[in-house]
Design brief:
With 316 residues, this protein is α+β, with helices and mostly antiparallel strands. It is built from four helices and ten strands, in the order ααααββββββββββ. The protein folds into two domains: 156 residues; 121 residues, Immunoglobulin-like (Sandwich). It is 56% helix and 22% strand. Helix 2 packs antiparallel against helix 3. The termini are far apart.
Length: 316
């Protein structure tokens, strides 16, 4: 058996068949084609895997970008809401306190959002709900503020009308007071006792009139207080101011001071008179310790209310 096989092998080597040669050649070619096909398949699979990975990576990046944009938009909305809260104000202290609390909530939510990753979609959705709640609360406050502002506007309008009416009343009062003051002044002026017939003369030691300076003992100033039914009745003091030829006031005491129409003046002599509304004549005497010289002497006569009159005297 072994010998037969050896002989067959030897025969085939010496007489190779064509068909067998092609078969052997084709067998070798078939082996090389399989390897090439396998390489192609592996390349395609690798390319597909790379494509899938690239798609997944791009998709993930796009999603992350969208989430970041969503986070940024949410942050901007919160900042805008915080600004809206800051713009709200009212004179109602209780409402102002509530607005401050809600504004602080918005600020805390902004801080929490900034610390949260954009990919944490659950937290982002939660913050969006909280934003909606804060907006709803703000709308209620805006409604309250509008109501208060409307009320305040009405109250301000009423207050303005009240001030206007008060101003008109004050103006009427001022007009009435001015008119009353004018009437009062007229009445006061009418109630002032006036004088007439002022005369300045000189008398000697015998109480007789003289114009000789060397004989003059005293100067005598007389005037009549005229009748006035509306003048206040009672005692009045009448003052005289005598001036010598040199124009200097003659007075025995510098402490003799009275006030007339707001002005303080020194008087030479004075006298009280009981005035009851009827005309009355009064005379006041002035003795100069230094005596009298030649020249023109003058006298001005006053009460505390007004100047009554003036007169002159020439001494020879």
């Amino acid at each position: 058996m072994y010998e037969f096989d050896d002989e067959m092998l030897e025969f085939e080597k010496e007489h190779p068949a064509k068909g067998n040669n092609r078969n052997y050649g084709n067998s070798g070619n078939n082996g090389g084609g399989g390897m090439k096909a396998a390489t192609i398949v592996l390349g395609v699979i690798a390319a597909l895997l790379i494509g899938v990975l690239a798609y997944v990576w791009l998709t993930k990046n796009a999603l992350v970008r969208e989430l970041n944009i969503e986070k940024e938009n949410l942050t901007e909305e919160l900042v805008a809401l915080q600004s809206d809260y800051e713009s709200l104000s009212t004179e109602n202290s209780e409402l102002n306190d509530s607005l401050t609390v809600e504004k602080e909530k918005v600020g805390q939510l902004i801080e929490r959002l900034q610390k949260t990753e954009a990919t944490n979609r659950a937290k982002i959705r939660q913050y969006e709900k909280e934003l909606g709640t804060l907006r709803s609360i703000m709308k209620s406050y805006i409604h309250q503020l509008d109501s208060l502002n409307t009320l305040n506007t009405e109250l301000r309008a009423e207050a303005s009308e009240a001030r206007k009416a008060a101003q008109e009343s004050r103006q009427q009062y001022e007009n009435l007071r001015t008119h009353t003051d004018e009437l009062s002044k007229r009445a006061s002026a009418g109630a002032v006792v006036k004088g007439r017939g002022a005369v300045l003369s000189a008398i000697n030691s015998s109480n007789k009139a003289t114009d000789r300076s060397s004989r003059v003992q005293k100067l005598k100033a007389c005037i009549s207080l005229i009748e006035n039914s509306i003048a206040e009745k009672g005692f009045r003091t009448v003052y005289i101011r005598v001036k010598g030829p040199d124009g200097i006031l003659l007075a025995t005491d510098s402490q003799n001071i009275f006030t007339c129409e707001g002005e303080q003046m020194i008087y030479s002599a004075s006298r009280e008179v009981d005035y009851q509304g009827d005309e009355v004549e009064i005379c006041i005497y002035f003795a100069n310790p230094q005596g009298f010289v030649k020249g023109v002497y003058s006298v001005d006569i006053y009460t505390d209310e007004a100047k009554l009159g003036s007169a002159d005297l020439l001494l020879k």
